[in-house]
Design a protein that fits this description.
Rossmann fold; 2 domains; alpha/beta; seven-stranded mixed β-sheet; binds glycinamide ribonucleotide
Length: about 210
Amino acid sequence: MKKVVILISGRGSNMEAILRAQPPVEFAAVISNKADAAGLETARAHGIPTAVLSHKGFDSREAFDAELARLIDGYTPDLIVLAGFMRILSEGFVRHYEGRMINIHPSLLPAFTGLNTHARAIDEGCKLHGCTVHFVTGELDHGPIIAQAAVPVLNDDTPETLSARVLVQEHRLYPEAVRWFAEDRLSLLDGKVRVRLDTVDPSASLRFPA
Ligand code: GAR
């Protein structure tokens, strides 16, 4: 069974969705850069070992990332899952985990990298918004896309209502992507992810307004 380490910084609702889905993996640890991350308690309640490594007190991003990599590698994971881990990652760290570190981002990438994605989608008048699970590369919120889910943007949406609608899809999408990795269904070809699924409906579409 593949071993998974999950990195969080806060609430950990995506982490919880993944733990609840019980994909065929061994959860080796949940690591947070913040001691007060609510997700740590949730992880413990699921019987998963937890660790905290605060980024404060390190001289540089590289120094923190090197220590974090040492901590992660102690668990010998096959996959690193970033679940609301709100840190910009150094080049060396990303390279070290190339092809075995995934992230979820609350937008339909490559649109709206960075923060405040829901407010920006509303400001741009987008009719569809959503979330993306992708392999992590050196560029922030970029990298080969594994899966995406879209939701409609409604006329009276606020960033809060839109974020809640997207989060429902995040909780569906991320566990699925972890399962695909565990089942060796993902491959990278020319920088693009191929997902090997038993059935795909090529006529499927999502359109809004319909
Ligand atoms: C999620 O919405 C996730 O997509 C986002 O942070 C939230 C974490 O929530 N991640 C990013 O913005 C990464 N760039 P959670 O702690 O409840 O999973």
